[in-house]
Amino acid sequence: MKTILLIKNKDTHPASKIWVSGPHLPKLKHWEEMGANITTKNGEVFYKCDIIFLGVKPGLLNDAINDCLNTLPPNASSKNVLFISMLAGVSIDQLHKAINVLSKDSSVVRIMPNTPMSVGAGVCLYTPDSSVTREQCEILEKLLSSCGIYEEVSESLMDAAGPLPGCGPAFMYIVIEALADGVVKQGVPRAMALRLAAQVLIGSGEMVLQTNKHPGLLKDEVCSPGGSTIYGVTALENGGLRNRATLINAIEAAVLKCKELGKK
């Protein structure tokens, strides 16, 4: 998803310098149509690139690295690259153990992106290992800035905080769908209902970010005495939405699954 936006934003990185690898060439054709280079050989990507994004399932990490070894061009010498891992739950130490068979002195950054990055409105957390230079971080930040906002965190927070940006969009899509259903029930066309519901979430988020006010205070500012909003809020309270355990448990379930994936 990030590669798509980097290709679209020519000022960030030229598509001609981007390589995309996958096991099935026909599924990579859309990358080629956007100007990127495609291959089924991970070793070719390793040989051609100085920054490599790892976007495989956690359990396939070793397979991806072994494919690098097996598909390196003849007489290719070892090189150090910056590996940027999107693998949920896989620690920097685990990444180094896997990568060491390919390159012993390469640096590693863990990131947790989300799907809205593909439209330039995402959130991405990142945590570098001790060997990553400030210059390398700045290169990564430049790439991420074209996809939304980013924030550096300690690795101890990556598994705890990562599921919020990573899984949160799915939770919000449920909210958007439910809000749209509410006005569809009142006779509003579905397409209009979805546009309005999506923009309400966008605007509400921007209010929190730009005003720096607590969400509870912003909610109070919308609720006039005896007005329609407070009646709607009461219905939400009665329906259990304010039972924060529901959303808290959703994040906790995602965190626990993330950690489980890292152990496989």
UniProtKB/TrEMBL annotation:
<keyword id="KW-0641">Proline biosynthesis</keyword>
<comment type="pathway">
    <text>Amino-acid biosynthesis; L-proline biosynthesis; L-proline from L-glutamate 5-semialdehyde: step 1/1.</text>
</comment>
<keyword id="KW-0028">Amino-acid biosynthesis</keyword>
<dbReference type="InterPro" id="IPR028939">
    <property type="entry name" value="P5C_Rdtase_cat_N"/>
</dbReference>
<keyword id="KW-0521">NADP</keyword>
<keyword id="KW-0560">Oxidoreductase</keyword>
<dbReference type="GO" id="GO:0004735">
    <property type="term" value="F:pyrroline-5-carboxylate reductase activity"/>
</dbReference>
<dbReference type="GO" id="GO:0055129">
    <property type="term" value="P:L-proline biosynthetic process"/>
</dbReference>
<dbReference type="Pfam" id="PF14748">
    <property type="entry name" value="P5CR_dimer"/>
</dbReference>
<feature type="domain" description="Pyrroline-5-carboxylate reductase catalytic N-terminal">
    <location>
        <begin position="10"/>
        <end position="89"/>
    </location>
</feature>
<dbReference type="InterPro" id="IPR000304">
    <property type="entry name" value="Pyrroline-COOH_reductase"/>
</dbReference>
<dbReference type="InterPro" id="IPR053790">
    <property type="entry name" value="P5CR-like_CS"/>
</dbReference>
<comment type="similarity">
    <text>Belongs to the pyrroline-5-carboxylate reductase family.</text>
</comment>
<feature type="domain" description="Pyrroline-5-carboxylate reductase dimerisation">
    <location>
        <begin position="155"/>
        <end position="261"/>
    </location>
</feature>
<dbReference type="Pfam" id="PF03807">
    <property type="entry name" value="F420_oxidored"/>
</dbReference>
<protein>
    <recommendedName>
        <fullName>Pyrroline-5-carboxylate reductase</fullName>
        <ecNumber>1.5.1.2</ecNumber>
    </recommendedName>
</protein>
<dbReference type="InterPro" id="IPR029036">
    <property type="entry name" value="P5CR_dimer"/>
</dbReference>
